[in-house]
Amino acid sequence: MDTHLVVDSTNIAETQQEQFELAVETFKLLGDVTRLKILWALLHGEHSVTELAGHVGANPPAVSQQLAKLRAARLVRVRRDGNRLFYAAKDAHVRHLVEQALFHTDHVVGDVPDHDDEVPDVVRNVDRRRGA
Predict the structure, then answer these.
(1) Which residue, 37, 77, 94, 110, has most beta carbons within 10 Å?
(2) CA 67: distance to chain centroid?
(3) Please, is 87 exposed, middle or buried when counting C-beta atoms within 10 Å of its C-beta (0-12, 13-18, 19+)?
(4) Residue 79 to residue 73: CA distance in whole angstroms
(5) What pLDDT, in 10s, does the model give residues 39-59?
(6) How far apart are CA 90 and CA 50, in angstroms?
(7) pLDDT band at 129 (very low <50, low <70, confident <90, very high)
(8) What is the CA angle 99-68-89, rounded to 5?
(9) What's the pLDDT tens digit per position in 5-21?
(10) pTM for the complete prediction?
């Protein structure tokens, strides 16, 4: 089964249902303030549970519980150093999701002007292949 999503804005019905469902689950995980704060901190480098607890204003057991959910969803990675675990954002996709969600708030609550609408390269490439 091909697990890569090809963006074809003219035929959403052909996009794999499983990918939409996984995307919804990802957005649900990002919909929690503590998890979003954890991910934001992890975009700036590795942190232990104790360090993250201090950054996000939560107790370490609560942070650990949230990290388990983020790890299960493949949004964070873990590195062991002796008996300590260090967490970081999984990849550039996670970085973009978190940054874009937070940067979007600048337009919602701030005075930041809208950007010019750009068509993502992946959509442009699909349209070119079809001769559009």
Answers:
(1) 94
(2) 14
(3) buried
(4) 16
(5) 999 999 999 999 999 999 999
(6) 19
(7) very low
(8) 30
(9) 555 555 666 668 888 88
(10) 0.75
In sequence order, the 6+-apart residues with CB closer than 8 A to the CB of 103 are none
pLDDT tens-digit series, residues 22-34: 999 999 999 999 9
Q: Which amino acid is at 87?
A: Y
What does the DSSP assignment read for 13-65? Answer: GGS-HHHHHHHHHHHHHHTSHHHHHHHHHHTTS-B-HHHHHHHHT--HHHHHH
> Closest Cα partner for 27 from 75, 65, 67, 63?
75
Mean pLDDT of 95-117: 83
Residue 124 pLDDT class (50, 70, 90 cuts): very low
Compute φ and ψ for 85, nearest 5 degrees: -110, 140
CA–CA distance, 125 with 116 (Å, rounded to integer): 19
Delineate the domains of the chain, giving CATH numbers in brackets.
13-129 (1.10.10.10)
